[in-house]
Amino acid sequence: MKLFKKTYWLIYPILIIVFMSIFDLVYITDNFILKIGVCSVLAFIVSPRKKLILTETGKTKQITWLFLKKPISLD
To answer: How far is residue 15's CA from residue 44's CA, in Å, rounded to a whole number?
Structure first.
C-alpha cells in the first residue's frame, strides 16, 4: 500500500495506454482524436479519486478506487 500511496497518480496515464491498446485490437480507426477521447473517458471513470474528509482531528486525504475495499488514508 505504501507504493500505491506514492504512485496513485500514475494509474490514469497507464490506464489510457492500456485502453488504447485494447481499443486498437477491438476497433481499428484512423481518427486518433476519437481514440484518445474514448480511452481518456474510460480511464477517468476507472481511475482512483482523491477526497478530502473532514474528521474531528482535522482534514485528511483519502484515495478511493473501484478495485479497493477500503479507502487509503494519505495523512
So the answer is: 9
Show the cell assigned to 60.
Answer: 485528511
Q: Give me the half-sphere count of Cα atoms (radius 13 Å) on the Cβ side of residue 60.
A: 11
The pLDDT tens digits for 5-62 are 777 788 889 999 999 999 989 988 888 899 999 999 999 999 888 889 898 988 998 9
Unique residue bearing C-alpha cell 481499443:
23
The dihedral built from the CA positions of residue 12, 15, 21 and 22, taken in this order, carries a sign that is negative
Structural domain harbouring 39: 2-73
Q: Number of structural domains, the chain?
A: 1
Backbone angles phi, psi at 60, to 5 degrees: -130, 150
> Please, which pLDDT band fits residue 64 given cuts at 50, 70 and 90?
confident
